[in-house]
Amino acid sequence: MAFQIALVGKGGTGKTTIATLVIRYLLERGRTPILAVDADANSNLNDMLGVELRRTVGEAREEMKTSVPVGMTKEVFMEYKVQEALTECGGFDLLAMGRPEGPGCYCYANTLLSKYLGLLLKNYRYVVTDNEAGLEHISRLTTRDVELMLVVTDPTQRGITTAARIRDLTKELKLSVASLKVIVNRCPGEVDSLIIEQLERKGLELAGVVPMDELVLRFDLEGVPMIQLPPESPAVRAVSRIMDRILGAEATEDASWARGSENNWKNESVAL
Ligand SMILES: Nc1ncnc2c1ncn2[C@@H]1O[C@H](COP(=O)(O)OP(=O)(O)OP(=O)(O)O)[C@@H](O)[C@H]1O
Ligand SMILES: [Mg+2]
What we know:
Bound molecules: adenosine-5'-triphosphate, magnesium ion
Number of strands: 8
Helix content: 25-40%
Oligomer: single chain
Radius of gyration: 19 Å
Shape: globular
């Protein structure tokens, strides 16, 4: 069964950036196959991964209400559409959930969707989900059995308070989250002791700190996919250390895919 990692947190804290760097980490370690899930209706994980988005699961759900061809069952149609929404990239696949449902009843479509997404997840070793900002979206988490929930926050008291609310909500909603840890992102230097104290007071576990990284800003400015950040990027290094600590710094597994021709995420020619 896939090990599911979900990135959550308030708006603009760096969820999509960190999700991308987690995927980069897994790819680099040969911990594949990976499914990247963009659960944000304003999808942009694909941009950071350098992948063109074709269709979304939301579109499949809409089409099931109106466009099932005569002679095709809804089951077969949905299975086909979920496959169609899956973009295969070098070393990982990407699935964008798209918009939540509009007005009307989607019960049957959603039942079928859950079934096929459940089957799909079985094909992967890791599933990394980038979620929409805000608390209300937690209840719509695409991935139900989350092994690792990473709450991304900025280094502020308000940020930590939101992280604690997210933790409380996952408990209230009885989501199955095996481990919840906080990543303090865009730290201007050493993480302040006030932040550490507040995390402790709220009973939150710190996964680690990701520094403010000029390269991330530069890539964002130039529109270069974050997955192509060089190994010396402080953010890349910090996320690698965090993931090593969490997953165990196993010896690099078979990373032969990374040397293969399908390796389209790593573009050595990117000017820094
Ligand atoms: N460690 C970092 N150093 C510098 N800039 C960063 C860092 N992490 C993220 N950023 C920048 O912060 C901005 C927000 O990042 P990102 O889009 O990943 O956040 P988000 O939480 O996914 O936002 P949203 O809630 O809108 O989905 C981006 O411009 C990104 O480049
Ligand atoms: Mg985002």
